[in-house]
Amino acid sequence: METTALPAFRKTTETFTSGAKTLPRRYFVSPEVFAREQDRIFAAQWVCVGHQSQIANPGDYFVQDVAGESLLITRDQKRTIRGFFNVCRHRGTRLCEDSSGHSSTIQCPYHAWTYALDGRLIGAPHMEEDRGFQKHDYSLGAVQTALWEGFIFLNLADQPRTVEEVFAPLAGKFTHWNLPQLRSAKRIAYDVGANWKLIFENYSECYHCPGVHPMLSKVSPYDSAVNDLCEGPFLGGFMAITKGTSLTMSGDACALPVGDVKGEDHARVFYYSFFPNVLLSMHPDYVMVHQVWPQAPERTLISCDWLFHPKAFERADFHPEDAIEFWDMTNRQDWHVCELSQQGIASRAYRPGPYSPRESIPAAWDREYLRHVD
Amino acid sequence: METTALPAFRKTTETFTSGAKTLPRRYFVSPEVFAREQDRIFAAQWVCVGHQSQIANPGDYFVQDVAGESLLITRDQKRTIRGFFNVCRHRGTRLCEDSSGHSSTIQCPYHAWTYALDGRLIGAPHMEEDRGFQKHDYSLGAVQTALWEGFIFLNLADQPRTVEEVFAPLAGKFTHWNLPQLRSAKRIAYDVGANWKLIFENYSECYHCPGVHPMLSKVSPYDSAVNDLCEGPFLGGFMAITKGTSLTMSGDACALPVGDVKGEDHARVFYYSFFPNVLLSMHPDYVMVHQVWPQAPERTLISCDWLFHPKAFERADFHPEDAIEFWDMTNRQDWHVCELSQQGIASRAYRPGPYSPRESIPAAWDREYLRHVD
Amino acid sequence: METTALPAFRKTTETFTSGAKTLPRRYFVSPEVFAREQDRIFAAQWVCVGHQSQIANPGDYFVQDVAGESLLITRDQKRTIRGFFNVCRHRGTRLCEDSSGHSSTIQCPYHAWTYALDGRLIGAPHMEEDRGFQKHDYSLGAVQTALWEGFIFLNLADQPRTVEEVFAPLAGKFTHWNLPQLRSAKRIAYDVGANWKLIFENYSECYHCPGVHPMLSKVSPYDSAVNDLCEGPFLGGFMAITKGTSLTMSGDACALPVGDVKGEDHARVFYYSFFPNVLLSMHPDYVMVHQVWPQAPERTLISCDWLFHPKAFERADFHPEDAIEFWDMTNRQDWHVCELSQQGIASRAYRPGPYSPRESIPAAWDREYLRHVD
Fold first, then answer.
1. What is the DSSP letter of C94?
2. What is the distance between the alpha carbons of residues C90 and B22, in angstroms, rounded to a whole number?
3. Which whole-number Å values give the CA distances from B239 to B118, B202, B272, C236, in the listed order?
4. SS3 assignment, position C315
5. B2: pLDDT strictly greater than 50
6. In this model, does residue A18 exceed pLDDT 80?
7. In this structure, are residues A200 and A281 in contact, taking their beta carbons and an 8 Å threshold?
8. Is the pLDDT of residue B126 over 50?
9. In terms of Cα–Cα distance, which of A256, A255, A240 is closest to A323?
10. Which residues of B touch C95 (CB under 8 A)?
11. Do the Cβ atoms of B19 and C69 come within 8 Å?
């Protein structure tokens, strides 16, 4: 065991502040708060929309809704990843109906206006008869995109801080996990009847694990949690795997190690939340990534990907369903209690309740949230 | 026949006021009026939520929504009936998901905080690590409950008038019906596309019976109605049964008499509405109780129970379905015309229309309603 | 070919104004704009609700929703077509539940108040006991109706301009089409997820035909369009049929000529929109009529009738399905791109886009629309 190789993950003394309470009711039910969040957070911060492996080749694309906008993410002929509003400049028609695909151009299904993969309008029948019309005035609306460790982020703001600047606190921390090379074996989409903040608060503590996750608790004790990112937009730490070699139905690792996993990390699961829409869960043999997409005060869409080493896919010992089934079960247990919380918080009887000493990370997440929205 | 034994039920001269009209449109379609009703009536008056026989033993409970709140009604170890908001004091989670059940404590499904049946917090894992935390600060939110003739009423107001005071006008009037001892054989829930006030206005007159209820009209003539409670929160009277011995599909009584039914009452059905949410219909052999629960200006949930003498259940001559089928059919006929009224009243062409001389009770009900909401 | 017989349909020089743009976003998504449209247009203008052949005999009726109101259109004993609010004057109950039927009187299903076909209250049980009550005070609410070329129009305004005045610009133009005598063989109702204005803009140009309607484009070239009504509430023109003898799946005419179709018109389809709710498409052998009914900013109901010569119905060469199938397919292609436009226009990235030289009629329709709503 090489504990000295992991200085960042020593048990830190977390500050537990007696008196920290859950957020007031309005944050979970108010349409006005929801609109402000969409505006100040989801339309202003870098949000993760997927992984570069989803659009490996020029012409590959996928569509993702962000802050009520349908966005088209594509790789152009120069292999640059681009983001566009999925809206024709002629009469406003939705351009791509499929959730993903491949195409050498972007053509409107209504009047056949055609755009290059870099967004330039390159075809508009009969518009040459209008002398006032210039194609270069009608490029697709663009949004900024960037990569972090192979994940695609985009930002609807006009002049956002760079991804490099935002992610500077994490520099080097995840390098050995080999994230840019991984590939998803499965995506499951969940439609959850709960406010998106309840999803983060749920992910950020294991105080609930004994009652909610009997199977997880048996192999990864709730009181083994150690947090090393305790304040700010990036929060989390790790827990021990005390039985078996990974979190799977069988208890065995189900694939090649994802990266350069060393020493004690073979018996650890790392859980980090990235404000505002990512949950990143790293196991020795797979990485699980949740994208969290608020739809309404009381409704959230969540997509969950299970990523594996690209070479794992070709091997006989590859059993991704062993990991998928474990976490699909565990995810659903979490969504259920989040939905119960949403129901109770909507009551006039709800008052902010006391966070326990085991809930310092949810409290920190709430503080980060309030920095953005208040 | 002992008519002298029933002085209260002599034919009264009802005051018919020419010129009484139905309520203006806004009372049936406005979200603002609906919110005011929920606030000033359903969250301020005593409302019936069930019968004590539903929670006969300590630990029995059921859940009922009132004015948008999920409430937990339980009988504690001292056999006291209690009402609580169904909301955990820790993170606001809904405590009970089932509509009814039995449990020796109330435990939150999220982090296992545990409450006694009297609402005291008796378990909160790890909270002892927080020196500022005191269990007695986190009892369940309580609501006032009371019994009237075996029916459970609750009140969301902080300092309501007592049930005894409110029900004083009915003192002794229903004693011989044996209501506290009865038991429900069946509950049917109806989801009706009409404002809740239309349900009361419909129940309060038999002017509609010839066209709407052909079977009922044959055995209980619409013009036999005699009202003895003609103004205020309690309204109604009785009608004659002129064929058969009860209102059932067969025409025969289907169970033991519910109480000490005397003389002419063997050939009468008594219909009373209790403002704001009860319809009480007493037949010689069964009592039907509707609970009326407004959901939206144009939607109302109605639960209907058929209650019988507890000894009736064990006898060979017990045929509750004979009564249930009769009234389920009749109920649905009523809900249908209420839905048609809702549709028409939403029109810009609707104007308050003239109540007929046969509709003095609906007019009185409207007056009582306006006392609360205006 | 008798082109001289058709002076009105000579190729006109349409004015194409470079710079005309689509309407701003709010016109397609705002509930306030929608309410204003319902008020200023659909409750203020003459709208088509059907054809006189639907109520050929006294007592025939049908029901149509206009501007949120359920209206009853009937033919009275004197053969006059009448329009009434479908609302009883007693307690506001919806009178007719069926979408069409035949009845010698109009009787309320609740308390049996009965009206003559001309709207007079002729029966109200027990109301004679109320000396203040006068039947003549409680006639059904009437709306104005009128005929134009056999089509029934109605108007919710108190003092609208006459239909004769409104339709004066079309005097004589459609006489030879024999419209009053036609009969519908089929009605299809479509529920479209798009603003109603997108339906008109779509109908008013064939710039979209090559991509959206491959089959139509083969037999009626998109660039054959000639418009002869280019400004105002009535807009449109004709296109050539260059293959076959009508627009049908087989390419053959499927019925007797509808009217006195002359010369080149045997190879033409005439397309006209009547503000605010009619699309009238005249083929040699059938007339297609769309009624457009806005339901919400992003939802429109459309009914489509296929009308034929009354003598066609009895003949062996009558194949209405040949025309119905062709346009049902083509209609659905149109609704789909309208729905895509609705989706894209809802985006914050949408900006009014440039109408092409082939879209002068949509631009003219928008101008007419703005005259009513701004």
1. B
2. 8
3. 44, 15, 11, 67
4. coil
5. no
6. no
7. no
8. yes
9. A255
10. 344
11. no
Closest CA to C312 of C275, C330, C285: C285
Rounded-to-integer distance, Cα A163 and Cα A233, Å: 13
Q: Which residue of B has its CA nearest to C69?
A: B347
Judged by CB atoms closer than 8 Å, whether chains meet at A357 and B90 is answered as no
Structure tokens at A219: 């192999």
CA angle, C208 then C210 then C214, to 5°: 120
Distance CA(C209)–CA(C142), nearest Å, equals: 43
Which domains does chain C possess? 3-44+173-373 (3.90.380.10), 60-147 (2.102.10.10)
Pair of tokens at residue C313: 């119905």
Percent of chain B with pLDDT over 90: 94
Continuous segment of H or E residues that includes residue C366 = helix C360-373
E strand or H helix that includes residue A335:
helix A320-345
**For the segment C273-304, what is each residue's pLDDT rounded down to a tens digit?**
999 999 999 999 999 999 999 999 999 999 99
Which positions of chain C have pLDDT values less than 50? 1-13
Which of C204, C214, C346 shows the shortest CA–CA distance to C278?
Answer: C204
What is the DSSP secondary structure assignment for residue C354, as one 8-state letter?
B
In this structure, the strands spanning C100-102 and C81-85 are: unpaired
**Angstrom distance (rounded) from CA C82 to CA C72:** 8
pLDDT at residue C16 in the model: 65
Single-letter amino acid, residue C287: V
Take residue C358 and report the two structure tokens written for it: 């082939």
Q: Kindly report which listed range (A84-88, B48-52, B258-262) carries the lowest average pLDDT score.
A: B258-262
Confidence of residue A8 (pLDDT cuts 50, 70, 90): very low
Question: How big is the A-C interface in CB pairs under 8 Å?
Answer: 88
Residues A285-298: tens digit of each pLDDT = 999 999 999 999 99
Encode pLDDT of A309-357 as tens digits.
Answer: 999 999 999 999 999 999 999 999 999 999 999 999 999 999 999 999 9
Q: What ipTM was estimated for this complex?
A: 0.93
Q: pTM of the entire structure?
A: 0.94
Does the structure show a pLDDT above 60 at B191? yes
Q: Please say whether the dihedral angle defined by the alpha carbons of residues B194, B195, B200 and B206, taken in this order, is positive or negative.
A: negative
B44: helix, strand or coil: coil
Number of Cβ atoms within 10 Å of the Cβ of B164: 10
Using DSSP bridges, classify how beta strands A142-148 and B106-107 pair: parallel, antiparallel or unpaired: unpaired
Q: Which residues of A touch C213 (CB under 8 A)?
A: none
Nearest-Cα distance to chain C for B344, in Å, is 4
For residues B272 and B260, is the Cβ–Cβ distance under 8 A? no
Query: Residues A160, A164, A170, A172: what is their CA dihedral angle, to the nearest 10 degrees?
Result: 170
Q: Which structure tokens are listed for C347?
A: 């985006």
Return the closest-CA partner of residue A327 out of A368, A269, A374: A269
Contact C354 A95 (CB under 8 A): no
> Which residue from C92, C94, C125 is facing B353, i.e. has the nearest CB?
C92
As a three-state string, the secondary structure of B230-268 is: CCCCEEEEEEECCCCCCCCCCCCCCCCCCCCCCHHHHHE
Quote the pLDDT of residue B14: 55
Facing residues of C81 across strands?
C75
Cβ proximity of A90 and C205 under 8 Å: no
State how far the Cα of A160 lies from the Cα of A40, in Å rounded to an integer: 12
Query: Both tokens of residue C122?
Result: 């002729």
Instruction: Look up residue B2 and give its two tokens.
Output: 């002992």
List subunits contacting chain A, requiring 3 or more Cβ pairs under 8 Å.
Answer: B, C
Q: Which residues of B116-125 are buried (b: 16+ CB within 10 A; e: fewer)?
A: bbbbebeebb
Q: Please report which confidence band the pLDDT of residue A14 belongs to, taking 50, 70 and 90 as the band edges.
A: low
Categorise residue B361: left if φ over 0, alpha if ψ from -120 to 50, beta otherwise: alpha
Whole-angstrom distance, CA of residue B160 vs CA of residue B44 = 7
